[in-house]
Every structure is written in C-alpha cells, then in structure tokens.
Amino acid sequence: RTSPKEMEAIPGTLGWPIVGESLSFISEFSSPAGIYSFINKRQKMYGKVFKSYVLGRYTVFMTGREASKILLTGKDGIVSLNLFYTGQQVLGPTSLLQQTGDSHKRLRRLIAEPLSLDGLKKYFQFINSLAIETLDQWSGREVLVLEEASTFTLKVIGNMIISLEPTGEEQEKFRTNFKIISGSFASLPFKVPGTAFYRGIQARDRMYAMLDSIIDQRRSGKSVKQDFLQSLVKKHGKDALEGDDDDKLTDKQLKDNILTLLVAGHDTTTAALTWLLKYLQENPAVLERLREEHREIQARKQGTLDLTWSEVNNMPYTVKVISETLRMATILPWFSRKAAQDFEIEGCKIKKGWSLNLDVVSIHRDPTIFPNPVKFDPSRFDEPLKPFSFLGFGSGPRMCPGINLAKLEISVFLHHLVCRYKWTPLDTDDSVQPTLVRMLKNKYPVTVEAL
Ligand code: HEM
Known about the structure:
single chain, alpha+beta, three-stranded antiparallel β-sheet, 10% strand, binds protoporphyrin IX containing FE
C-alpha cells in the first residue's frame, strides 16, 4: 500500500494492500499490553508521530503531552471527534459526539447541570441502596465481576436518566436493547438483516420508541419524576415554558443525547469497577489502606450501613485509587480525532481530513512522570501532576462530562465492598477484549466471602 502523496513525509508503514496493518492492530489489541504493544513497537522505529493504515483509515498515531495539548484543547477548532461510521449511524447526527464548535459547547452546557455534583445528589440514596443490595447477592458466590458491574451501572444510569425501576419487565427490555446497541459499535458497516449493525439500529429504534412514550407522558403531566429526562424536557424540551429559546432541544436531540450518555457512561464505568477489584486484589497493602479509610467512616456511626452525601465526597485515598486504576488500565487507550484544518505537530505536516489517534497508554506509562509505571501506586496522585500527563477522563472541551457520576458510583460501591467483603480471583489471565473500551476478556471471575 502506498501513502497519499502528502503522507509520504510522515514516518511509518501502511502495511498490506487493502487491510493495511489492521490484522496486527487487532491481534495486539487483545493482548495483555493491548494497543500499547502495537504502538510502542512502531514508536521505537519511527518516533512519537507515525502513520499506519488500520480499520479502513489512513491514520497518524501520536503521543506525548505536547500532542495532547494540541489535539485535546482543539485550539481554533483544528480537530473534531472521529467516530466510526457505525457509531455515527447508531447515535444519530445530533449526538454530542458529532457536534463541533458552538453547538458542541451549547449541548455540553445543557447537560452540565444535571451531571454536576449538586445535580447528582438526588440519586445518591438509590445508588447506595443498589450497591448494598448488589453486594448482598454476591456474598458466598462465584461472580463474573464485569457482568455484575455492568448490571449495576446500567441500573444506576437507567434510574438517573428515566427513573427506571431496577427490576421488572421495562428494565429487562432496556437492558436487552442496550446490549444489542453497544455490540453494534464495533461491527462491520453492513446494514443488512442478520448483521450486528442492522440489529443495533433496530434496537436503537425500539429504545427511541420507549423514550418517545416516556417523553409524551412527561409532557402531558401524566407522570412527573425528578430525573435527567424530566429536567431536560422541562427546561429545554421544544415546548418548555422555562429557559431560553436558543436552548431548546428537539425530541430527536433529546433521544440522541440520552443514548450518547448511556453508551459513553456504561462500558467505561463497568470496566473501571472491574479493573479496580483486580488491582486491589493484587495489591494487598493498597487494599488495606483503602479499608482503613472506609472503616473510619463506618466506625463513626456504630456499624450501620448508612453512608452520607458528605462522607462520599470526602474519601481522599479512594479518589487516588480510582485515578491510579484509570492510569494503569487506560480504559480508553486512544482518543480519535479528525483534522479539521492543516496544521503541524512535532514537525509533521497534518492535512485536513486525516484521522489522528492520540496514544494515551504511552502518556500514562511515561517513566519521567510516573516512575516504575507498571506499579499500582495511588500515592502518585498525592501531588498535582503536570497538565496532560493524566488523561483518565480526558482533558479540554471534550473532557468527560460524566466524571462526577462515575466517581460517585465507584466510591459508593467500593465503600460497601471493602468494608464487608473479600474476593479471590478464579482466573488471572490479563487479556483484554478487542473493543474500544479496555475490558478483561475473562470478565474477572471471583469468589466472594463476607469478612
Ligand atoms: C470511569 C468511567 C469513565 C471514564 C474512564 C470515562 C472516560 C472518558 C474520556 C477519557 C473521555 C474523553 C474522550 C476523548 O477526548 O476522546 C470521555 C468523554 C465522554 N464521557 Fe466519559 N468516562 C466515564 C464515565 C462516563 C459517564 C458515567 C458518562 C455519562 C453519564 C460519560 C459520558 C461521556 C461523554 C458524553 C463524553 C463525550 C464528551 C464530548 O465529546 O464532549 N462518561 N469519557
């Protein structure tokens, strides 16, 4: 395969005709080191910026704090997010992920309030009770942590967005449709019956029909809830009495963005919880110190399971453990962008329209910032880090808007887990699934016992 003319100056190889380097990309993707082994080998040969042809795209890979700053701050709109065709089709054209510039800014502003710490306070009791209930069911059993964490995080977000009850027929339908949608993202882009992409679009349409009926009920006043959808319909729905006219959203925009939050928030939080259990189990000293923090909280209230909002927002060691987990696991191993104009990076000329992948794993394993980077050590976060050296939740205008929700769910779950249970892994294989979000292939099977 030969480069487009302008790409000739960029170091690297494009691999075989048609497939390029996709085969080695996919096979190294699911190895324990993940995409890092693909990238690291090439960085050693070509340097921090190199070209390749993977998954049907000419792509320039880049890494380092300098590249992060340019790509993530997106100064002067030089890049946009680069979703695969299947993702674009399933999430819809008005999804936050497909907006740029002012319309992106505006949508972010509209969802910021319900996802702020204050906005999340009302879901705290639900999350707390669900964590206790979920863990009660783990006790004395073998569980696949990834599956269980997925059920937990989906129930949380379903309740938060549309007040979905954690059990029952509606929850089952929601879960089934969501799983099909999620599975269609990494599929081939053939929209014919029988393919994962086709099933994904159909499941998306069923999910939208469910949302349409809920939106109608909210609008007619037949049902009034205190959830994310209610606050959007009330303030920003097309016939909302409150709010500015410029801030109105069509029903299509509401649905596309509810689905976007579900998709962006589910696998990521599920993966984070699973990696956390794994790293804690492999690092008993960290687990012990974490237990101390949580036992101190419990000791203050004579053994009841109550956890308060102020306690959950005051868990300094837990916050560091979560950050270290996100550094080690690098759940989103690269951030994908498209050049919106010509520009230069690390001496390489980038042309408008090229796909750019920021390699985050190398940033998280930079030994000048994180000495002995393969060690799980939450004390790395004792002092503030240099900008763009930790990108667990990204940075700049596209930084994760779900950060507060993710930290809340994880902290509450961890509190009940470490205070009351211990767990032993049944398989220590570190391989990961070949999906965009890094998740353990074996789903992390463990036995759980009460302490
Ligand atoms: C531990 C859990 C999570 C992790 C590690 C995580 C990580 C990230 C990262 C790294 C980005 C930036 C990607 C980029 O720049 O290309 C991002 C964006 C995003 N996240 Fe999260 N996330 C988590 C949970 C959530 C939750 C719970 C939600 C929703 C409720 C959410 C919604 C989003 C959305 C909508 C974006 C796109 C923002 C935009 O394009 O403006 N995430 N997330």
